[in-house]
Specification:
alpha+beta, five-stranded mixed beta sheet, 29% helix, globular
Length: 122
């Protein structure tokens, strides 16, 4: 695999995650949701009437460890804040919500390894 910049890698991972989630029956509501300059949520979806905020982490190889290990307490706090802003922005007063993580190891690109963690954190 040729050198990829971080943005291209992230987009490729998100494309794979969206395809994977759609095949599992998720309905994709938004991708790359931004609220002002506060941050981003990679994917917002509906799974069996549950609003799901999905963080996607992708890596080409294991040089820096499994992709899911990139989700640290600071990142979790950021994702939760963005979820609150999404609910505020869309004027959603009540919703059953959860946070999922999709970790993708791209390897040579021909057969990526996908790990999906439902309800990854609260």
């Amino acid at each position: 695999m040729s050198e990829k910049n971080k943005r291209d890698l992230g987009k490729e991972g998100e494309d794979i995650a969206v395809k994977y989630l759609t095949e599992k029956g998720f309905i994709i509501i938004e991708r790359n949701y931004h609220y002002s300059t506060k941050g981003e949520i990679d994917v917002i979806a509906n799974d069996k009437n549950q609003l799901v905020f999905v963080e996607v982490k992708s890596r080409i190889n294991l040089e820096y460890g499994e992709p899911e290990y990139a989700i640290n307490p600071k990142k979790i706090k950021q994702i939760k804040k963005m979820a609150e802003l999404y609910l505020f922005d869309k004027e959603i007063d009540e919703a059953d919500c959860r946070f999922d993580v999709v970790a993708i190891l791209l390897g040579d690109g021909s057969n990526p390894v996908i790990n999906h963690y439902e309800n990854a954190f609260m």
